[in-house]
Amino acid sequence: MANTASTWLIVGASRGLGLELVRQLIATSNTVIAACRNPSSASQLQALEPTGAELHIIQLDVSSEESIRASVGKVEAVLNGRGLDYLYNNAGILAQDDAFNFSYSEFLAILQTNVVGPALLASLCLPFLEKGNKKTIVNVSSSMGGLTHDYGASAARYSASKAAMNMLTHKQAKTRPDLIVISLCPGWVQTDLGGVSAPLEPPESVAGQLKVVLGLKKEDTGKFIRYDGQELTW
């Protein structure tokens, strides 16, 4: 659980892990900018009631360059001169396919949503992060994106996108050593993406994620970390 007042931009906040991140963060005096594709239909997000926190809901579709660029002004307006402590790139899509059986356009779409969108958002939010106290980017990844973790032939596009996300994390950390940038594996969680067979429920995963993120130090930048604090191999 968060125990210090910080500014957060949570992407993909209308359901699943993103919604639970917002729920736990607004239990204390944080400023949380919750970004989702369709705020008007995000009933669970709209129903959240902050306890001593600020909650601002904005529109952001990470598959759309226009939407990403338009969201920056909304973030700037909420911050009102303050810096951004945490950019939490949580939005993502899963696809079940193999390395030879896929749609060209759908492969491009998953890369756009899972890698290119988060990369652009981080670039555009850089001035806000530079003014923040924590200067932290969390790229939500998966052990399926690690070359040393063998999940067989399934989910080829998703795995490729998360491997690319991991490399993005590495390059962001090397390019800007003044920031803290990590890839974070949330575990296999009971969400729309993870399915009902997953062993973890969102509150457990998110509590672990926040414990990891709030405990980050400069020497952690560029790492691939699991929600329980275990450092993963690439």
From TrEMBL:
For this chain, the family text in UniProt reads:
Belongs to the short-chain dehydrogenases/reductases (SDR) family.
Give the organism, scientific name. Answer: Rhodofomes roseus
Which Pfam families does this UniProt record tie to the protein?
Answer: adh_short
Among InterPro entries, the record links this protein to: KR_dom, NAD(P)-bd_dom_sf, SDR_enzymes, SDR_fam
Q: Per its record, how is this protein called by name?
A: NAD-P-binding protein
Q: Which residues form the Ketoreductase domain?
A: 6-191
Q: Locate the transmembrane regions by residue number.
A: none
